[in-house]
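Supplementary Methods S3. Input chains for the assembly prediction are listed below.
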Amino acid sequence: MKYLAISVTAVLTALFSGPAFADDETIAVFTKNQTNPYFQAVRVGTETAAKALGVKVIQYVPTKPDSIPEQLSQVEDVIVKKPNAIVFIPVDYKALVPAVEKINAAGIPVTNITDRSAGGNFVAFVGADDYSIGLSVARRLLKAIGGKGNVIILEGVKGSLTSTNRVRGFNDAMKENPDVKLLASQPANFQRLNALQVMENLMQSFPSIDGVLAANDPMAVGAIEALEGANRKALVIGINGSKEAVELIKSGKLLASGDFNGFIQGCIGTEIAVRNLHKQPTPKEVMLKPIVIDKTNFTPYEMPVEQRACPTLEQIVSN
Amino acid sequence: MNTAARTAVRSRFTLSRDVMQAFYRLLGVVLLCAILATLSDVFLTTNNILNVLRQSALLFLMASGLTLVILTAGLDLSIGANVALSACLAASVIKITGSPLLGMATGIGCGAVIGLANGILVTALRIPSFIATYGMMWMLTGVTYYYMAGETIHGFPPEFRQLGSGYLLGVPMPVYVMVLFLLIGGLFAQRTVWGQQIYAIGANPVTARLSGVPVERRLVLVYAVSGAMAGLASLIILARINSAQGDIGEDLTLPAIAAVLVGGTSLFGGSGTVAGTLIGALILTLVLNAMNLLQINSSWQPLVTGVIVLLAVWIDTRARRIGE
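Predicted structure tokens for the full assembly:
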């Protein structure tokens, strides 16, 4: 009897609730580029959530990384195709505002994740804030060097909001430790080859470096290679919690990485978009807490994102 | 054959002038170094000099092959994307087979095949090199992104890493590779018939063809060499940063072109030297090194880079007039 009841419910669900939204609903997801593993994690997050919620996602990624004109024209295409909802990361938080306004005018509900847009109407914003992540991961390093010594900051692309906020977090952590000396703060454009060369140059000027604060993981890796190449030792931190960073934390080469958790942002952004479509209540803003991945807690991060399950909105909000 | 003889005489004359100009350009570098030495006391240390040479090796390797292309009045915009694909494929092969040699063959081979394809587009299909290599750049970038899917390959065997981070008699390995290709490139361009034919094609393709130069075959060769050098550069990058990512070649093409042009090779073809390109690569590397040593604020760095590049070219054009 129990089986029958279940199967009847299943049939009924398939017949009525199914066609009402599940199969037809599509969500257009916009990310910045195909090269940064962070956005790959976001895309996997949106797909994992979509599968669980029974909706379809279509990914829009500029072929030229972070290209403003390309994302603008992709938005125009999407408005013509009229998906049910949009999950949106602007390649530039200011330049894409007119595009968001066009989406608003077309009446497609849009959820903003990762980088907060400077304007336009959104169902919600889901993000982790760069400043707090920079602050907490820098504190971890400054504590590890005993609150004193010489530190170098590797900045990302000059003028980018991400780099500015992360570096601001680094600097505020430095202010809490007056015995730590900032030797230099130089840009390495979020790239590992640039970071390697900048670090090689800085090592010429500074015979004693205790710590390196890098605004993302690839630059942290570049700095580690430079230090190893010169047979020198310093503690290094990065930001992104990438797979590579987790492996380096495991092998003891990287002290810690700030976790930005693109996967969870993708999951939650999609869940909010779907809830909003189904007229369920949604929060206006979800800020993920900064997590510092280090030797003590890296194990869950070793699992590839493709195999992870999405947390639900309740789990995240109650946390 | 009378024309051929005249072309030969003409290019020999161009040569001696080129050598004179390379000398003036070298003076420019010495002057730049002298200024930097007064500003920073670590600038002229042996360590920093070796550091700058090692960093410029990468730029030089890419720019040296490109010099030959630009000597024929062509352009190769695909080298950065070529470096990325070659690096990613070489990295995969090293990871899968565990053999650095197979990986190196893959990197250089992949680079050369891409160059060959560029050469065929330019000659057989008669597509202007700017457009042919621009299209190639997009295709390669697409293939690389698809292949890597946002992943990173990292951790190579120590014997392979020697190529990038090793030392021999206290000098970094990439510096030896750079000197080797400076000699090969210089001798090939100045002292071989094929090299002279490349200058002749750039100076005047019609005259070159009339005097019996196999223009198409030399052009294909030039693009293939440029591609192979990008493949070689990709190996040095891999060995240095111990990892490969899809965006590894970004921001590499323009500096390579700039190194060739700052080094005095004419964008219109027919005039320039591989040695000049080395000087161009040195100047561009010195600028970054100096900005780090002097800790110039990151907001000012792009402006400073621009000013120094323009200054270098201005000094060069002045020196040229004196040379003539």
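The two ends of chain B are 29 Å apart (CA to CA). The mean pLDDT of chain B is 88.
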